[in-house]
Amino acid sequence: MPTPTQKIEIASQLLDTALRHFFSEPPEYFATICLAGAAEEILGKHVEAKGGESSFNSMKNGAVLISQFLEGEPTTEKAIHKLMNNAKNSTKHMNGSDDSTVNFEPKSEAKDLLERAVTNYYQLMGHFELKETDLLTRFNNERGT
Fold this sequence. Notes:
- This protein is mostly helical.
- The chain has a domain at 7-56 and 103-142.
- The protein has 7 helices and no strands.
- The chain has helices at residues 7-23, 29-49, 55-71, 77-84, 86-92, 106-124, 134-142.
């Protein structure tokens, strides 16, 4: 009989592996996007289950408010959601034969997804036994670069 695995452990492994791909030589940004995107989503659900606001929702809500000031009326949450998840979704889905390329800057998209996942991870450290790894420390130290 298989042993159950906690999803927080799965998300931690995905995040760690995403960070390894991000810092590998050469960097593997598309692998980072897929892994960090999955980690960010699972970790975000755990944050919300603990009564917090996931980094995704925080950014999405902020973008909706900012769009109201810039455009006079807010952009829809759905439009912001689609834009924020474009890199993650376009690398893992193919919608017909005309959808055979992606058009975004992979390094910045990988970094954005990692930032969201890492933010969620840190929010959960008080609720779960999550460790500050060397890769997390390195990512935090290099965030501004």
